[in-house]
Automatic annotation (TrEMBL):
Organism: Leptospira johnsonii
Domain of life: Bacteria
Name of the molecule in the record: Uncharacterized protein
Length: 150
């Protein structure tokens, strides 16, 4: 049976599973000894992170969320990835600007099916969805292409 657990804000029910890590819940939030569970839930529910325009180079910081958006506005953009967690899946929605014909140079840690990086959809305002599984050292990529964004 849950027992009351006091916080500065209010009282909520305390649950004690075998590991003793889950302290309780309140208003849709989970409280753990180290906040890791709620942090994971917050990351999963985070909105798409808008990285703006690419320029000639762009760092995609995966610690800001699992879903990213980037408008390609330079003939070639060299991408760098940072902040991933091993075993997680990330996405980047790459959108061609109104000029189109933009390309990407991927980090060397990205592995594509067959060992060949995709050629991006080149039409103006077209988009490609890139999905990456991070293994701890490599990003295993897959993709869907030629979405219409206008």
């Amino acid at each position: 049976m849950p027992t009351p657990f006091n916080t500065p804000e209010t009282t909520f029910d305390r649950f004690t599973p075998n590991d003793g890590n889950l302290l309780g819940s309140e208003f849709g939030r989970l409280y753990t000894n180290d906040n890791t569970l709620q942090s994971e839930i917050d990351e999963i529910n985070a909105p798409e992170f808008d990285n703006g325009n690419s320029g000639a180079s762009k760092t995609i910081n995966f610690s800001l969320g699992y879903a990213h958006r980037l408008v390609l506005d330079s003939s070639n953009c060299t991408l760098t990835f940072s902040g991933p967690k091993s075993g997680k899946v990330y996405s980047i929605f790459l959108i061609q600007d109104p000029t189109g014909g933009r390309a990407v140079t991927w980090p060397s840690s990205v592995v594509w099916p067959g060992g060949v990086a995709p050629i991006l959809s080149s039409g103006a305002n077209k988009a490609d969805l890139m999905i990456f599984y991070y293994s701890g050292s490599k990003y295993y990529g897959s993709y869907s292409q030629n979405y219409v964004t206008t």
